[in-house]
Each structure stands twice: as structure tokens, then as C-alpha cells.
């Protein structure tokens, strides 16, 4: 291995890594940060093309780090070894484990999802073993013999919630997640962390609400939106067939646009405090009711 | 109002508040911390007898703080006004809002829940307007015409998860939550915060697993435990009637004790990464399937 060593806190790379916590420098550079053993391992599994890998042995927690570093290098990542203090500066976690990678951002459009709703083949998900190319990280279109199952979230504010929602969509077997009118950058370090790497596998599109609705309608996908104002319970709605579940933001719920244009508003019954269900909890409840019905 | 003013970071009360973040001093003093406007308002609503209220106007975010302070004083709390820097020291939140209360801990036993499973009246929940006494904070036994619905969690490690689980139990209308073999103190400040005050309303008992099982059996409550190893899907199990849903810990899942002794193990189907569902997510999925079935 040819490894550059970094000890100075003034090193330009150290300064740049700190900057990449913020969106503008991230977008300007077209990259994002992946911190932590588990997340980097998942990124490698999903063939995310890591450009750089920064590591600091003094922070390692286990014994598998050298193998992971070798794997990253074999996949083309440039390596940098940092001193303990230099790594402490670049880490954004409270308890760093000595591993931080930089990878290129990607962008996927609604048209990239066409194959999903058309069920027109392509590498399967989950469990696909087909290598993804750089431009198609996590974009493998499911080889669907079944109706598409999509999650649409609107203007989610907290990165932790967006990450948790991605995990839920993954667990429920959603074919894609569409983030409308984003407030949170999907490449925010806390989305990466909270998603536990699902960001690298679930096909994810960021788009405005109007074209998303138009696209869903063109594909014949029904839209079911959850709102406390609905009459119908989510368990009384038919959640089979081509389906998009639409969730609003933490603070404002669904926008007028989705309330007016969705095919069916539904509500989740609430027994306790008005705010006992946050958006991540409401999402997983609705997704798994759909899973139940769709297994029939 | 007679208000003691505190500006010194060396003030013994300031030092004690910092200590109360840790369990041992908390248990020795028999009190716990409630930080934040929303949480303190909920504590007052649920008649938690606040002993002390510390506030720092320089941190206030809105205009309703004086009314809340007056309400706390009227309810018997001793008031202390802190300077900005003194409050920064006692606050455990990253972004304090200038309000921190101290309240006595309470303890509830399995026997306190007898009324719940017996359905023998008492103030109703939710929406009870009957004042609770000091010793009965949140203990109002539901006026059940229906079968008891209980959540049992085993050895949950993360305070944030325990708080989220309490919210879920509240939203699902559970009659009680039983924490077995606790690793996390229910009065940990992060449980208080993550529960958004549900800690003050849902009847909560901490006990060892063996007596919990014996008590549930004596009351004729069926135990359904979730584990990835189960054959039966949670949606195929009958979740009506007297029911306890049992959830294991984050890291180890359910113990042998519950796996062996529960009436029925069930599993949640998983489409994605093995760890996409954490214990809080698995709990809310199972609880709301029970809500669906029990509404029949």
C-alpha cells in the first residue's frame, strides 16, 4: 500500500473533510462522507466507488479494519493514514472508529425508475449480485413480477428521520423511495449514518412533487397519503397493487398539493398523546400494513 | 414569587443538578431531571409533583415560559433563576430552552397493575381527568371493558429506544409497559426526552422476568414474543384478548427465558438488510398489528 500520512490539523485535506459536513461544499465537490466500519463495509458491498479512505489505527475498535482498508484500496480508493488528533478533527461522530471515506454523489431521476414500474427486468433487489456501475449505485431496477411498491416522503426535515425512513422502506421491501421537495440533503452525514447504509441500496430519487405525481399517474400507481384528517383508517384501505404511500413532513404534515391530489387519504388511529407518533413511526406502521396485505 | 438567584457555577445546587445526570446520585436522591418546556408542561398536566424548577430567561425560546413557571410554583415547586452561563452548565440538552425541573422518582409494582387486568375501574386512560396523587403518578388504572394489552420489553440498552418504545405503547393504547431486567434507568434524562413525556402517563413497571411471567400467567394474559427465529408471522397470530407483546434487547434479542416460556413466538418478515429493523421499529409494527386486530 502507498499511504500518505497526515498529522497536521492544518492539512488541506483535513480542512476539506470538515467542510464536507456542510451541504454547499459537498455539492460543489460532488462528493459525500461515509464514516464508520459498518457503513463503509456496506458501501463496498454495494460497489459505491470510494475515492478516498482516511483511517487512524489509534481509533480502531476491532481487528477487521486492515482487511476493510485493503478491500477499499483494491476497489480504487486512495488511502490516508491519520494521527489520532487529526482523525478526531475530521470525524463527525462523537465516538469515531477511525474510518472515514469520501465517495462521489449520484443522482437518479424518475425516468431511472421507469424500469421498476414497468417490471422490465434488470438486476433484482434485494439480494442482487449484479455489479452496479458508478452511475448506477443502488439503481438496480427490481426484476418485478409483482406490482411496484413505492414510498414518497415530502420535505422531511431531520436527517435522522430520513435515514430511519430509508431503513423502514428497505425492511418493507419498497422498490424505491422518492423524496419530494427536499429540505434535508440525502447525502447529509446523519442520513448516511441513520440509514445504516440503506442509502447505498434502496433506489432513491429526489424530485419536485408535481412531476412525481404526474409520473406516478402515468405509471398507473395509486397514491395513498396518511393524514390525521382522513376519515378512512389505513387498515381499511386496499394497499395491494401498484402503490405509493405518501408521508408528509414532521412539522407541517402533508402539503395541500398531496392532500388534494392523492387517490386516498388515510389515517392511523391514535390512542395517546397527539404527538406520540412521529413521521418515521407513522411511515413504518403504514408500510408494514401494506406488506401484510400484499402478501395475500 | 420568591425566587432564589444563582449565578455561580460553584453553587451546590448547580453541582447537584449536573450529578443527577448519572444514575447513582439520582437514585440516592430519589429524584430525576425533566428538561424542556414541552416535557415540564406534560409533567404538570400529569400532576408530577415538581420539587424544584430552574429557569434562565436568557435561554427562553418563546413567550409562554412565565405562565409555565407560575403554574409550577402554584403546584408547589421551589423556583430558582439562573444566569445564562449557570444554566448552560446544568442543561443536558445541546440546545437548552432555559427550563429544568427536579421531580421525585416513583416506583410501581406488578401488584399496582392488578387493577388493569382485573378491569376493576379506577380513573380511565387516556383522557382521564381524575387528579393523580403523588404516589400514583401515571398509575391511573384503565377502566377496562376490554382485555388488557401490555407491552413487555427486556433489557433495552439505549435510553432513546426505551423512550421511543414508550411513545409507541402510548400511541397504540397499551394499558401498561413492563421493563424486565432493566439495563437503562427509566429516569435517565434521555428516556424522559425521547418519551416526550409519555413516561408521566403510561403505567410503567420495572421487574425481573420470572415474576413478570408468573404474574402474566396468573392473570390469564397470553405472551407473544417476537424473534427472527420464529416460524409464524406476527400477522398470522391471534393478537386479540388479554395480550402481552414481549420484545428483546437491541443486541441480544430475547433471552432464553422468554423464548422458552412465551406462549407463541412470532416473526416480522424482513425484505432488506438484516438489521434494518431495530427494536423500536419492530415494537411499533407488532403493536399496531395488535391494534388492527383488536379493533375488530
TrEMBL record, chains A, B:
Biased composition (Low complexity): 126-139
Lyase found in the keyword field: no
Domain RNA 2-O ribose methyltransferase substrate binding: 33-109
Classification via Gene3D superfamilies: 3.30.1330.30, 3.40.1280.10
UniProt-listed Pfam families: MRM3-like_sub_bind (PF22435), SpoU_methylase (PF00588)
Keywords: Methyltransferase, Transferase
Residues covered by region (Disordered): 117-139
GO annotations of cellular component type: cytoplasm
GO molecular function: RNA binding; RNA methyltransferase activity
UniProt GO BP: methylation; RNA processing
Protein family (similarity comment): Belongs to the class IV-like SAM-binding methyltransferase superfamily. RNA methyltransferase TrmH family.
Protein name: tRNA/rRNA methyltransferase (SpoU)
The species this protein was found in: Opitutus terrae (strain DSM 11246 / JCM 15787 / PB90-1)
Amino acid at each position: 500500500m502507498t499511504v500518505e500520512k497526515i498529522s497536521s490539523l492544518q492539512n488541506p485535506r483535513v480542512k476539506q473533510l470538515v467542510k464536507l459536513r456542510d451541504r454547499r461544499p459537498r455539492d460543489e465537490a460532488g462528493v459525500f462522507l461515509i464514516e464508520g466500519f459498518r457503513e463503509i463495509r456496506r458501501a463496498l458491498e454495494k460497489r459505491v466507488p470510494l475515492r478516498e479512505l482516511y483511517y487512524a489505527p489509534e481509533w480502531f475498535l476491532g481487528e477487521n479494519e486492515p482487511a476493510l482498508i485493503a478491500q477499499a484500496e483494491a476497489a480504487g480508493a486512495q488511502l490516508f493514514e491519520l494521527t489520532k488528533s487529526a482523525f478526531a478533527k475530521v470525524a463527525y461522530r462523537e465516538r469515531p472508529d477511525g474510518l472515514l471515506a469520501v465517495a462521489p454523489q449520484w443522482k437518479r431521476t424518475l425516468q431511472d425508475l421507469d424500469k421498476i414500474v414497468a417490471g422490465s427486468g434488470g438486476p433484482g433487489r434485494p439480494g442482487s449480485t449484479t455489479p452496479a456501475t458508478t452511475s448506477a449505485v443502488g439503481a438496480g431496477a427490481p426484476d418485478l413480477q409483482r406490482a411496484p411498491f413505492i414510498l414518497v416522503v415530502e420535505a422531511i426535515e431531520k436527517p435522522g428521520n430520513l435515514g430511519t425512513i430509508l431503513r423502514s422502506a428497505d425492511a418493507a421491501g419498497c422498490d424505491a423511495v422518492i423524496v419530494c421537495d427536499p429540505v434535508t440533503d440525502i447525502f447529509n452525514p446523519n442520513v448516511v449514518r441513520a440509514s445504516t447504509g440503506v442509502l447505498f441500496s434502496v433506489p432513491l430519487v429526489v424530485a419536485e412533487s408535481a412531476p412525481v405525481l404526474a409520473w406516478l399517474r402515468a405509471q398507473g400507481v395509486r397514491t395513498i397519503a396518511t393524514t390525521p384528517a382522513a376519515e378512512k383508517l389505513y387498515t381499511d384501505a386496499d394497499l395491494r397493487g401498484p402503490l405509493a404511500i405518501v408521508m408528509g413532513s414532521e412539522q407541517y404534515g402533508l402539503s395541500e398539493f398531496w392532500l388534494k391530489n392523492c387517490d386516498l387519504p388515510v389515517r392511523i388511529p391514535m390512542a395517546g398523546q397527539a404527538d406520540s407518533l412521529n413521521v418515521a413511526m407513522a411511515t413504518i406502521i403504514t408500510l408494514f400494513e401494506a406488506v401484510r396485505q400484499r402478501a395475500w
